C-alpha cells in the first residue's frame, strides 16, 4: 500500500517544498499548520501541542507517514513557544502516532544541536550534543530529537532525524521568482530568517562591515536538497538500501557538501541584489572587526537593548554564528539514504535573487 503523508509545518519554506515534491510524484499528501498559505494541497489547521487535535487530523487524512518540520521562527518567537511547539508538539505527535499505528515519522532537527560556539570541522553524527546549547531554539531541538529517537520501534513506529545546516532558498521552485515574491518571502512562506536578515543589512547600507577574518567555512544548503533528503528518508524507512544500512532510529546531517567561507556567501547575496538596486550600494572599504571586539560590542548592544526594552541589533550569538567554522560530513546520508545534493549553492543564490 502506498504511504499517505502528512507534512507538519507544510506552509513554511521547507514544508512547502516537501509537500510539493510528494504531490508532484503522485503521492497522497496533506498539510497541518497554523496558517494556510496555499490551496493546492489538502490543509488542516491545528495546534500540534494538542494531542486531541493531532489525533483528529490523523484520523481524517489517514496518514501512515508524518514528516514533522514545524518550528517557531528561530529569531523572533518567545521561549515558551519553542517549548510548546518543538517539545510539547513533538510529544503529542509521537503519542498520537503510536496510538493510531502510524508507520513512519521523519523529524527535521538542526545541525545546531551540536554547536556550542567552538569550531566544527567535518564532523559526523557521532559528535555529541552541545553541553550548553546556544539558545532556546537549539535546546528544544535537542529535546525533540531525543523524544523522536526514543520512540523508534514503539508500536510499529519507525523514526528518523535529519539535521540540515543553513537552509536557504526561494518560496517555491515551481514558479518563477520575481523580486516581489522575494520581498514577500521575507514576511511569510519563504526564507524568513537568513535571507531576510541579509536583505535588511543590504538595505541599511551595512554591507561593508565584516566580523572575523572570513576563514571560517560554513555549510549552506539549498532548500530543494533538504526536501529531497526528507522524501528519501521517508522512503528508506520502509525500503532501506541494504540490511546493513538501517534508517530507523538514525540521525543524518544534510548539507550541500560544499562549505563556503561565511562572508563569501553573504557577499554573494548582496552582489546579486545590486542588480535590483543599481547604484544603491557604493563601493567602500570593508571594515574588518576582530571577533573579540565583536563579542564585546555584542555585550554592549545586548545590555542597551535590555534597558530600552527592544531587540539588540547585534548579539554574542550572531557574532559567534558569523565567525565559527561549521561544516559537516554527510557520508552517512549519501550511503544510507542515497542522498546527493542536486542544486548547488551558487545556482540557488542565482535563482533566489534572479532578475527576470
TrEMBL record:
What InterPro entries does the annotation carry? 3Beta_OHSteriod_DH/Estase, Lipid_A_modif_metabolic_enz, NAD(P)-bd_dom_sf
Q: Which residue range or ranges hold the 3-beta hydroxysteroid dehydrogenase/isomerase domain?
A: 6-274
Q: Per UniProt, which keywords does this protein have?
A: Oxidoreductase
Q: Name one Pfam family in it.
A: 3Beta_HSD
Superkingdom of origin organism:
Eukaryota
Q: Which residues form a coiled coil?
A: none
Q: Which family does it belong to?
A: Belongs to the 3-beta-HSD family.
Protein name as it appears in the record: 3-beta hydroxysteroid dehydrogenase/isomerase domain-containing protein
Q: Which organism is it from?
A: Lentinula lateritia
Amino acid at each position: 500500500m502506498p504511504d499517505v503523508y502528512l507534512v507538519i509545518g507544510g506552509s513554511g519554506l521547507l514544508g512547502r517544498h516537501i509537500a510539493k515534491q510528494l504531490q508532484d510524484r503522485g503521492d497522497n499528501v496533506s498539510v497541518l499548520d497554523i496558517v494556510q498559505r496555499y490551496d493546492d494541497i489538502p490543509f488542516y489547521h491545528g495546534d500540534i501541542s494538542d494531542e486531541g487535535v493531532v489525533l483528529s487530523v490523523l484520523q481524517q487524512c489517514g496518514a501512515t507517514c508524518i514528516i514533522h518540520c514545524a518550528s517557531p521562527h528561530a529569531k523572533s518567537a518567545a521561549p515558551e513557544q519553542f517549548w510548546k511547539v518543538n517539545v510539547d508538539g513533538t510529544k503529542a505527535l509521537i503519542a498520537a502516532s503510536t496510538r493510531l499505528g502510524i508507520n513512519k515519522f521523519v523529524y527535521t532537527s538542526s545541525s545546531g544541536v551540536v554547536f556550542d560556539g567552538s569550531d566544527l570541522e567535518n564532523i559526523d553524527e557521532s559528535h555529541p550534543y552541545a553541553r550548553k546549547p546556544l539558545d532556546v531554539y537549539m535546546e528544544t531541538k535537542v529535546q525533540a530529537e531525543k523524544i523522536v529517537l526514543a520512540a523508534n520501534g514503539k508500536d510499529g513506529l519507525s523514526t528518523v532525524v535529519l539535521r540540515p545546516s543553513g537552509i536557504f532558498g526561494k518560496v517555491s521552485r515551481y514558479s518563477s521568482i520575481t523580486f516581489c515574491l522575494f520581498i514577500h518571502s521575507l514576511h511569510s512562506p519563504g526564507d524568513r530568517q537568513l535571507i531576510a536578515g541579509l536583505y535588511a543589512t543590504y538595505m541599511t547600507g551595512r554591507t561593508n562591515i565584516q566580523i572575523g577574518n572570513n576563514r571560517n567555512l560554513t555549510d549552506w544548503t539549498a532548500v530543494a536538497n533538504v526536501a529531497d533528503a526528507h522524501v528519501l528518508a521517508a522512503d528508506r524507512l520502509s525500503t532501506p538500501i541494504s540490511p546493513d544500512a538501517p534508517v530507523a532510529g538514525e540521525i543524518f546531517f544534510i548539507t550541500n557538501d560544499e562549505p563556503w567561507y561565511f562572508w563569501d556567501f553573504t557577499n554573494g547575496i548582496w552582489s546579486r541584489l545590486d542588480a535590483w538596486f543599481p547604484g544603491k550600494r557604493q563601493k567602500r572599504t570593508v571594515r574588518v572587526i576582530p571577533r573579540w571586539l565583536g563579542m564585546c560590542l555584542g555585550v554592549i548592544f545586548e545590555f542597551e537593548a535590555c534597558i530600552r526594552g527592544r531587540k539588540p541589533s547585534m548579539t554574542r550569538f550572531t557574532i559567534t554564528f558569523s565567525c565559527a567554522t561549521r561544516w559537516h560530513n554527510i557520508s552517512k546520508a549519501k550511503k544510507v539514504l542515497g542522498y546527493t545534493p542536486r542544486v548547488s549553492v551558487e545556482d540557488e543564490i542565482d535563482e533566489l535573487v534572479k532578475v527576470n
